[in-house]
């Protein structure tokens, strides 16, 4: 006779009990995927609308030009009238990527619903930049908030693979050629201890840029003080860490707008302009 303790439990959990309504009951699935949805601003101020539409048309043209390899384009929104600025804010909305750039001045960056169209706000700054990533996020990324001291980081009990991981990261950082493919060190696939993570954080220091990309779950990207080294962590929709990596690159791909994104943004901006007119 088979002992009941060797059998799987029955009669528990969703779907195991009779439903008086006669309908199947499913477990709630993870949610939170953000997708593009067009928004048409509404305003009774026709002059403000016309002023905002003129700038949006210039932004659409800039998206096409930048997608072809031109330098990023900037638009000073502080010159708009208050009414036009409100129309512009409604039209641009908020996209998936936001950034915090430390320094003087400290800058908050929010991607609009149009990929590659970035809104930058700071003391004395209210502008839109069109490009794969804001220029300040690249130039200030590895300005040290805490220095990268490398192998001088204090050794503690419990270290395992951190010294060898650091050797790989520093080697890739020093020999990286501009535009080369990113070099990824996947900590999720490597045995390591909590002490390893703390030691690597001290060895690589802290830079000045923090990025959050929201899609199906979140991706948190943090610049280290070591040139071209980023901490990239992926979380699922339940905010559980599912992938923990270091990337050696100018900017991790998850935070960049592709040329195709910029071309698509040009089309979408013109769709919004057509809907408002």
List its traits.
about 280 residues; alpha+beta; Ribosomal Protein S8, Chain: A, domain 1; 2 domains; ten-stranded antiparallel beta sheet; elongated; disordered N terminus
Shape-level CATH architecture of the largest domain: 2-Layer Sandwich
Look at the structure and give the CATH class of the largest domain: Alpha Beta
**Overall tally of domains:** 2
Order of helices and strands: HEHEEEEHHEHEEEEH
Q: Could you tell me the radius of gyration in angstroms?
A: 24 Å
CATH homologous superfamily assignment of the largest domain: HupH hydrogenase expression protein, C-terminal domain
Let me know the largest β-sheet: 10 strands, antiparallel
First-residue to last-residue Cα separation? 79 Å
Poorly predicted tracts of residues: 1-16, 24-31
Concise structural overview:
By secondary structure, this protein is α+β, with helices and mostly antiparallel strands. The chain has six helices and ten strands. The chain has helices spanning 46-67, 82-92, 135-139, 162-175, 194-204, 259-276; strands at 73-76, 97-101, 107-111, 117-122, 125-130, 183-186, 209-215, 217-223, 229-235, 241-248.
């Amino acid at each position: 006779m088979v002992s009941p303790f060797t059998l799987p439990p029955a009669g528990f959990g969703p779907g195991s009990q009779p439903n008086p309504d006669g309908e199947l009951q499913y477990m709630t699935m993870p949610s939170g995927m953000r997708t593009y949805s067009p928004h048409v601003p509404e305003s009774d101020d026709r002059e403000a609308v016309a002023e905002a539409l003129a700038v949006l048309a210039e932004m659409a043209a800039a998206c096409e030009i930048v997608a072809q390899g031109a330098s990023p384009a900037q638009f000073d929104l502080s010159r708009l009238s208050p009414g036009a600025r409100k129309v512009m804010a409604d039209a641009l909305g908020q996209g998936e990527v936001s950034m915090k750039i430390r320094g003087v001045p400290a800058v908050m960056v929010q991607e609009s619903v149009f990929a590659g169209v970035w809104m930058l706000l700071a003391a004395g700054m209210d502008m839109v930049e069109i490009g794969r990533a804001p220029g300040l996020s690249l130039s200030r990324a590895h300005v040290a908030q805490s220095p990268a001291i490398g192998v001088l980081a204090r050794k503690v009990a419990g270290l395992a693979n951190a010294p060898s991981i650091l050797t790989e990261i520093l080697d890739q950082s020093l020999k990286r050629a501009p535009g080369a493919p990113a070099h990824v060190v996947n900590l999720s696939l490597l045995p390591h201890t909590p002490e390893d993570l703390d030691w690597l954080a001290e060895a690589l220091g802290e830079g000045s840029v923090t990025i959050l990309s929201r899609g199906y779950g979140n991706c948190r990207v943090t610049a280290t003080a070591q040139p071209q080294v980023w901490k990239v962590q992926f979380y699922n929709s339940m905010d559980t860490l599912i992938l923990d990596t270091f990337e050696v690159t100018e900017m991790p791909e998850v935070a960049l707008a592709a040329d195709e994104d910029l071309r698509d943004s040009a089309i979408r901006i013109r769709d919004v302009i057509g809907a408002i007119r």
